[in-house]
Amino acid sequence: MQRGQFITLEGGEGLGKTTNLAFIETLLIERDVDVVVTREPGGTVLAEKLRQLLLENNDEPIAEQTELLLMFAARAQHINNVIEPALSQGKWVLCDRFTDSTYAYQGGGRKIALTTIRWLESFVQQQLRPDLTLLFDAPVELGMKRAKKRGNLDRFENEHWVFFNQVRQAFLKQAKNYPQRIKIINAELSLAEVQQSIKQCLDLLR
Ligand code: Z5A
What we know:
Elements (H helix, E strand, L loop, with lengths): L5 E6 L5 H14 L4 E5 L5 H11 L8 H25 L3 E5 L2 H11 L4 H12 L6 E6 L2 H9 L12 H17 L4 E5 L4 H13 L3
Parallel strand pairs: 1-3, 1-4, 2-3, 4-5
Helix pairs in contact: 2-3, 3-5, 4-7
Ligand Z5A binds next to helix 1, helix 4, helix 6 and helix 8.
């Protein structure tokens, strides 16, 4: 059986990943693709519990190393129980965030050494890498404005502008390092224009 394709959606907060996840799922179903939609951190019962620990605002500050290890602990569980089984059954996996977020938030934002992240990536993922990554990109202010409209801010959303700008720059650096895999979507455009770009990117996988 032919292995499925692994597609990830990445980018700063509030830039349209969740909105367009449903759009992509519909497009793939129309193309008769059997698709599993999932997210990180999360995607299994245990990984969703880790997500909650990671996102909730806590009295006890979470050390940067703890944050990184919890991200990869959730990822290990997700890969073993959901992503790998689906791909090997020929299903496509559509995932809201994956390891590019770790490079951006824990690497770019928290300044954890990229060699450490790379080591964990190899240890946890072995050969697994996304086939296509859509990077939603726009000035930080836009995402912050959209996210604030939703009300309660989680632990990451409470970070300041400088942090989010470092995250954005780290995402763009990943895109520069992996131009074949990572396609930048201009999230400042209207939803219709964004979705037109997404369609063009998906055609690359046909
Ligand atoms: N994190 C990490 O640090 N390290 C890791 O390795 C991983 C994650 C995997 C949770 O992610 C946090 O985990 C995340 C990084 C960290 N923290 N942050 N920040 P998340 O994905 O759950 O959280 P999020 O990025 O904040 O998701 P979000 O706020 O839901 O953003 P979104 O999904 O990209 O946006 P949206 O909900 O689809 O859209 C926001 C609003 O904008 C909504 O009202 C839409 O209708 C509107 N929208 C969307 N597109 C458009 C366009 N084109 N025009 C106008 N309006 C639009």
